[in-house]
Amino acid sequence: MNGNLLLRIAVGIILLTHSVFGIFNNGINDFGNLYLNQVGFAPFGLYLAWLIKISHIIAAVLLLLNKYIKMAGFITIFILIMGIIMVHFPEGWFVVGGGRNGCEYNFLLICVLLAVMYPNGFKINSKSKND
Fold first, then answer.
1. Which has the closest alpha carbon to 73: 23, 102, 111?
2. What are the residues whose beta carbons fall under 8 Å from the beta carbon of 43, sequence distance 6 or more?
3. How far apart are the first and last CA of the chain?
4. Radius of gyration of the chain (CA)
5. Which of 24, 33, 56, 70 can pair with 15 through a Cys bridge, CB separation 3.0 to 4.6 Å?
6. Where is the chain membrane-spanning (predicted)?
7. CB atoms near residue 6 (< 10 Å)
8. What is the mean pLDDT of residues 82-111?
9. Residue 131: pLDDT above 50?
10. Inter-residue contact 104 to 93 (CB < 8 Å)
11. pLDDT tens-digit profile of 37-64?
């Protein structure tokens, strides 16, 4: 069994719940129309919002299946970084407690995704002693 199974399940559940509930409570449409279109993505804000949430669903499934982990991770990390820049950073660090809607949660998700993508750490290619 893969050592990062628990992390993959946790992130998969978070991505799924964050996306699926938005489908049924009009959150995706509101995010597209009331936020993305208003900050300069009009007339594509709604489509972009749906692409983001569909990418989260696909990434969640891939994480759960342990397939294409790096591709799913890179795309999701890009979206999370853009979320930090556009939405969360102006609100500060804390999600609750010392503030509201901050970037700490996205930061943690990015770190977990990197740990899942690189379970043995980052390796820099170096020449072997025999070269």
1. 111
2. 37
3. 36
4. 17
5. 56
6. 5-24, 44-65, 72-90, 105-122
7. 10
8. 93
9. no
10. yes
11. 999 999 999 999 999 999 999 999 999 9
